[in-house]
Design goal:
heterodimer; A: 14 helices; globular; B: 297 residues; mainly alpha; 68% helix; 0% strand
């Protein structure tokens, strides 16, 4: 097992290097002078000179990449153009918000998706099966930025049940420990803030969970159907076990193996798909931060943020692969 | 299978006819096909079927509700936006933009993906390794992020959004084609083609590729769905089609300020995206069932 994990980590290194190459060269593929792109059109000659010196933009391109990589290994993603702060610090401030949103969305989509998938599989060709699978297909086809606005229109503007944007209402105090607001509120016993944070996260989380829910429901259904056809399920039924026991004790365990992989991969997709959701709901996470950077042409933030999210994505996918090997012993043989 | 009146032994039929009839019996696929036909029809014939000019503004007709509302008129069936432009006409022209996105970005991705995939699968060795590692790198980016970043550097425009989407979709095609080509090249007909001295490109394009068409067609259909969705998302973020282009995602972005006063301005473009994408997804699912006999039960 350990050998497998180590081998996978070694395979990951060239991928990470490749990502850094793509991110690095993108700046040079863009039309125009990189220094000017980085500093903005109105930068003074002096500032342009400084950034050229700092990043070594006058040196040959492979030397520049070397400098970039060296800084990267030190954990230095550079400074933002507009706020003149370390990119790394800004990422650290915003990432908890993105993770919190993604975890809640993943939780919603796991529960909903698996329930829909299991019921559809056990009642194959029933009206419920048809409706939920049609629903899943609609879910996969949903423009979530539009769905978010529709939710907003219905639940905030018309019904007034949920807040429109942000993570906390103005005036609510919360001592932050982990920067996961819902968790922090529980830890400090601040129930007013807990309710407020939860109310804020519901709508963005449901919006974000639309596509994963649909994908997990479809995966659970097909995996469950395959397992239900196996002989050991017939045996279990023949023994006279109840339908509930057959499905949940015998079938579900094996059916879940491919579903777990899907769920893991969805987590990576969610973290990055948050760009749209965060922008709509003004959720102060990494996605909205990158979006703002794109709008303000802060290429240092785009570069740093992209590299960060892509690395997280790769690491999560690695963890999913390892987890898959743990729950599915057949993998180890290969 | 519930064949109540078997006219002919299905084994005797040509596989293509068999697949077509499979597809025809699949109700969801037919539904998808109908939606796509309407979509393509609107896209191609936009100037003839749309009641108004999609860019024509009118000071007197601002924010008119759809016809079933109290103040709606038959002149603007789905109402007008804040500049008095007819929403139905803009939706019909929007189909044209989305159709272009599907054709160009998926077409580009299909072309380069198939080319790279078949080179990779046919020549194997280090060339294969290099190509597939590059594909892995592209895949290791969360793809909407990659598209956003590419557009951020190239500058926001519909053309750049299409290029960005095409780049992110190349690996899907390359992987499928490579897998199929690897499998096909083991077969005897390729060996015999080599033996009679056929050139490499002839073996790849005339002999091998037609046998990998099934999964390719499915992937193309599903990619059209996600390309339309992604282009709309990019345009919504202001990174794709620029105003006043009647693009569905951009229309939603522009209507955000009207969300309370005139919710229909936002509702219809969203439904249009949903239906177009759903159409391709329905057809793609149906095609997969029809073309991949392993999935039939």
């Amino acid at each position: 097992m350990l050998a497998y994990i180590i081998r996978r980590i070694f395979i990951m290194i060239p991928t990470l290097l490749g990502v850094s190459i793509i991110v690095f060269f993108m700046l040079h593929l863009a039309p125009g002078d990189p220094a000017e792109l980085l500093m903005g059109e109105r930068a003074s000659e002096e500032a342009l000179h400084d950034i050229r010196e700092h990043l070594g933009l006058n040196k040959p391109i492979y030397v520049q990449y070397g400098i970039f990589l060296k800084q990267l290994l030190k954990g230095d993603l550079g400074e933002t153009i507009w706020t003149r702060q370390k990119v790394w610090i800004e990422v650290k401030e915003r990432f908890p918000a993105t993770i919190e949103l993604s975890i809640v969305a993943l939780f919603i989509s796991c529960v909903l998706g698996m329930i829909l998938g299991i019921i559809s599989a056990t009642k194959q060709y029933s009206i419920f099966d048809y409706l939920s699978m049609l629903g899943a297909l609609i879910g996969v086809s949903m423009p979530i930025f539009w769905l978010g606005l529709v939710f907003m229109l219905i639940f905030s503007l018309n019904l007034g049940w949920l807040p429109m944007s942000g993570r906390l209402s103005v005036g609510i105090e919360l001592e932050t420990i982990t920067n996961f607001y819902v968790l922090d509120a529980i830890l400090t016993g601040n129930w007013e803030a807990f309710k407020d944070a939860l109310w804020h996260i519901i709508m963005p989380a449901f919006t974000l969970s639309t596509i994963p829910t649909a994908i997990i429901a479809r995966m659970t259904r097909s995996s469950m159907l395959e397992v239900l056809r196996q002989d050991y399920i017939k045996t279990a039924k023949a023994k006279g076990l109840s339908q509930f026991k057959v499905v949940f004790k015998h079938a579900l365990r094996n059916a879940l193996i491919p579903v777990v992989t899907t769920i893991g991969l969805q987590f990576g997709v969610l973290l990055c798909g948050a760009i749209l959701t965060e922008t709509i709901f003004a959720w102060p996470g990494v996605g909205k931060w990158i979006y703002n950077a794109v709008m303000q042409r802060d290429y240092m933030v785009i570069r740093g943020g992209t590299l960060f999210l892509a690395s997280i994505f790769i690491v999560i996918n690695l963890c999913v692969d390892v987890l898959y090997a743990v729950i599915n012993p057949r993998i180890k043989v290969q | 299978m519930n064949n109540k009146k078997p006219k002919k032994n299905p084994e005797d039929r040509h596989p293509f006819i068999d697949q077509l009839s499979q597809l025809w019996r699949n109700k969801t696929a037919v539904a998808g096909l109908i939606i796509i036909t309407v979509f393509i029809f609107c896209g191609i014939l936009a100037p003839y079927v749309s009641p108004h000019d999609p860019l024509e503004t009118s000071l007197y007709d601002q924010i008119k509700p759809p016809v079933w509302h109290e103040n709606g008129t038959w002149n603007n069936i789905l109402g007008t936006d804040d500049l008095g432009r007819d929403i139905l006409s803009r939706l019909i022209y929007g189909a044209r933009v989305s159709l272009a996105v599907a054709v160009f970005s998926v077409g580009l991705a299909f072309f380069f993906g198939t080319l790279l995939g078949s080179i990779s699968g046919y020549y194997k060795g280090s060339l294969d390794n290099i190509i597939m590692r590059i594909m892995d790198m592209i895949l290791s980016f969360p793809y909407i992020l990659l598209a956003i970043v590419v557009v951020a550097y190239l500058g926001p425009s519909l053309r750049n959004a299409m290029i960005a989407i095409a780049i992110t979709y190349v690996p899907r095609f390359a992987r499928i084609v490579r897998g199929s080509v690897l499998e096909e090249c083991e077969k005897d007909y390729v060996t015999s083609a080599r033996a009679i001295g056929a050139r490499d490109w002839r073996i790849i394009f005339i002999a091998v590729l037609p046998n990998c068409l099934g999964p390719l067609i499915v992937q193309t259909t599903l990619s059209c769905a996600s390309a339309i969705l992604d282009a709309a998302a990019l345009s919504f973020l202001g990174l794709g089609a620029q105003p006043p282009t009647p693009e569905w995602g951009a229309m939603i972005a522009q209507s955000r300020a009207l969300i309370l006063r005139a919710s229909w301005v936002m509702t219809f473009p969203g439904l249009a995206i949903l239906f177009a994408v759903l159409g391709f997804n329905l057809l793609g699912d149906g095609l997969r069932d029809a073309l991949d006999p392993r999935l039939r039960d």
